């Protein structure tokens, strides 16, 4: 398994990047969001990667962040969501935006991706939320009272944990991060702040 690539960027466009590693150019298919983060040709680049193995092809996918890679892996584990559809979704939605769509059940946001219809968008939301509901519930107890003295909203915290867990993060780790935030914040803001704190640690 090729975990990541680091080397000189020798080609890029809206859908792929070629990074030279040890004299070999490694072609990675990328989302539009990752493509926008790529440096200029000739500069050093780093991508997290995921290798898709089929009988007739080996395809390498590249991601600018570990969160995007986690999203890709979770999406392609769903029946009916292939690598092409997953990249289309990640071209429209950054990881925090996808987490918010999952938490709010926003199928319209997901259907903005090319080739993703309402039924598939609904399946994505249902399967990812069902996958993490039980595990996230285990970690929503015992949230500390914030400095404001206002009790946090366990419901908002649980939704944020569930959405982030759906991206591939460990619920126990996510719960600790969310517990350090102001639980009275809306789910969307909890997700954004949690992702900032998580960074590349998970």
In short:
With 202 residues, the protein is of the alpha+beta class. 48% of the residues lie in helices and 18% in strands.
H/E element sequence: EEEHEEHHHHHHHH
Number of helices: 9
Q: Given the helix and strand composition, which structural class is it?
A: alpha+beta
The profile of the biggest β sheet is: 5 strands, antiparallel
**How far is the N terminus from the C terminus?**
19 Å
The stretches of 5 or more residues where confidence is low (pLDDT under 50) are: 134-153
- Strand neighbour order, sheet with most strands: 3-2-1-4-5
* Radius of gyration based on Cα positions: 18 Å
Outline, from the CA principal axes? Answer: globular
Overall tally of structural domains = 2
User: On the 0-100 scale, what is the average pLDDT?
Assistant: 83
Strand % is 15-25%
Bin the helical content.
Answer: 40-55%
Q: What does this entry look like structurally?
A:
The protein has 202 residues and is an alpha+beta fold. It has two domains: 60 residues, Nucleic acid-binding proteins (OB fold (Dihydrolipoamide Acetyltransferase, E2P), Beta Barrel), CATH 2.40.50.140; 121 residues, no CATH class. 48% of the residues lie in helices and 18% in strands. The protein contains nine helices and five strands, in the order E-E-E-H-E-E-H-H-H-H-H-H-H-H. It has a five-stranded antiparallel beta sheet, with helices on one face. Helix 6 crosses helix 7. The longest helix has 20 residues. The radius of gyration is 18 Å and the shape is globular. The two termini are 19 Å apart.
């Amino acid at each position: 398994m090729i975990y990541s690539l680091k080397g000189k960027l020798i080609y890029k466009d809206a859908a792929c990047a070629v990074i030279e590693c040890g004299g070999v150019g490694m072609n990675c298919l990328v989302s539009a969001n990752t493509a926008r983060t790529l440096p200029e040709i000739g500069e050093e680049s780093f991508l997290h990667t995921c290798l898709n193995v089929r009988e007739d092809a080996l395809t390498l996918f590249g991601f600018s962040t570990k969160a995007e890679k986690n999203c890709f892996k979770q999406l392609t584990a769903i029946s009916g969501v292939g690598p092409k559809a997953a990249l289309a979704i990640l071209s429209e939605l950054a990881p925090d935006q996808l987490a918010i769509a999952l938490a709010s059940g926003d199928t319209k946001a997901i259907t903005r991706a090319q080739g993703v219809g309402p039924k598939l968008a609904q399946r994505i939301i249902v399967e990812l939320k069902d996958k993490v509901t039980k595990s996230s519930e285990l970690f929503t107890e015992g949230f500390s009272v914030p400095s404001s003295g206002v009790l946090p909203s366990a419901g908002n915290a649980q939704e944020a944990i569930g959405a982030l867990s759906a991206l591939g993060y460990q619920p126990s780790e996510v719960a600790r991060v969310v517990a350090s935030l102001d639980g009275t914040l809306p789910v969307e803001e909890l997700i954004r702040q949690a992702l900032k704190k998580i960074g590349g640690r998970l």
